[in-house]
Amino acid sequence: MNYRHLGRTGIRVSELSLGSWVTFKNQVDVDAAVELMAAAYDAGVNFFDNAETYAYGKSEEVMGAALKRLNWRRSSYLVTTKFFWGIHNNINERNTLNRKRLIEGINGSLSRLQLDYVDVAYCHRADKTTPIEETVWAMHNIIEWGKAMYWGTSEWRPDEIVAAINIAEKHHLHKPITEQPEYNLFARQRFEKEYARVFQDYGYGTTIWSPLASGMLTGKYLKGIPKDSRANLKGYGWLQKRMKDKDQLAKVRALQPIAKSLGCTLSQLSIAWCLKNPNVSTVILGASRVEQLRENLGAEKVVAKLNPKVMEKIDKIFGIAKDEDDD
Ligand code: NDP
User: Fold this and answer.
1) Is 57 left (phi over 0), alpha (psi -120 to 50) or beta?
2) How many domains does the chain have?
3) How far, in Å, is the centroid of ligand 1 from the Cα of 126?
4) Which has the least CB within 10 A, 187, 194, 197, 234?
5) Once rounded to an integer, what is the mean pLDDT over residues 81-97?
6) Hey, whose CA ends up nearest to atom 44 of ligand 1?
């Protein structure tokens, strides 16, 4: 396993990591979580991603129970969580980054995870109504109290990230150090173009999500919706619709011969393509079964095969990110 610095921090994260969205609780119980996390850890993964909103807190409970059973030395791994949507449908507790919510949120997460601290606490989305200054102070306090080591943003606009960094610098507070954006062959624009200055000027880290576009890039949806897939879960009708997108399916089909010529699977190729970007600190993998995880961990060895010719072929299929002033 290779490790990359998380932005400009001294901490290094495995370039492949494991997340629990959709899977933990819905598809993966504590036994299966133990199996998945152990397979990841044994392969060198040191970063495990979660969020309070995943399965309304139950995903953190599953991860917490699994960690307890695994009994690893706490210093040997990193755990993250995120706040914004909340888990209670109540004013001041939903879609917010207010101080009260963030501080109550971290306390709730730590209790569900059965941990003394998380390594990165993320603001899961930007909050248009709470002053950024209030959020920055709360995140700073959470770190000062030892409840998180670092803090980050997820899907914030570049100007919002820069505003948070500037406020932190002005008051000598802990700055956000990493984004958690979507990045995969279908979602390139924000990562490659909009965030370019944030990477260049601030060395901001990235822990990227849905590298397989929820499974679309594995090729598993080419013949319809598999019964045991994420898109067939109750409440995931929106995803099922996306997995029938003819344009996307055609692109995945066109990627097949490239994967074949490189001697790898579609999943490995798609993940390796994300790893090829040096602005990626870690690719967060999702897996509902340990065989999927094992296959995906094999992506590391494909990166070296992605020479300029191969990258060009891939660009031809998926298109490239455009500059703002392009037509
Ligand atoms: P992916 O895009 O990699 O999708 C993972 C899913 O694809 C698996 O659960 C599985 O679903 C299927 N799959 C994976 N590998 C294979 C394989 N080799 N063969 C067949 N099917 C496979 O990642 P996620 O969407 O899960 O995102 C990864 C992590 O990113 C999340 O767990 C979460 O931690 C984070 N995230 C963060 C967000 C944010 O807003 N900050 C948003 C979304 C995710 P199936 O059950 O169908 O087999």
Assistant:
1) left
2) 1
3) 22
4) 234
5) 96
6) 209
Please indicate, yes or no, whether the overall pTM of this predicted structure exceeds 0.90. yes
Q: What is the pLDDT of residues 259-298, one digit of tens each?
A: 999 999 999 999 999 999 999 999 999 999 999 999 999 9
- Decide whether any atom of ligand 1 lies within 6 Å of the 132 Cβ: no
Looking from the CA of residue 231, the nearest atom of ligand 1 is 47
Q: Is the distance from the beta carbon of residue 270 to the nearest atom of ligand 1 less than 6 Å? A: no
Ligand 1 centre and the CA of 197: distance in Å? Answer: 28
Pocket test for ligand 1, best of 79, 119, 281, 288 (most atoms within 8 A of CB): 288
Please give the Cα distance from 18 to 207 (Å, whole number): 11
Q: Select from 245, 262, 250, 248 the least CA-distant residue to 311.
A: 262
Q: Answer whether 108 contacts ligand 1 (Cβ < 6 A).
A: no
Length reported for the chain: 327
> What is the residue range of 140's domain?
3-326
Residue 286 alpha carbon to ligand 1 centre in Å = 3
- 213 within ligand 1 shell (Cβ under 6 A): yes
Active site residues: 54
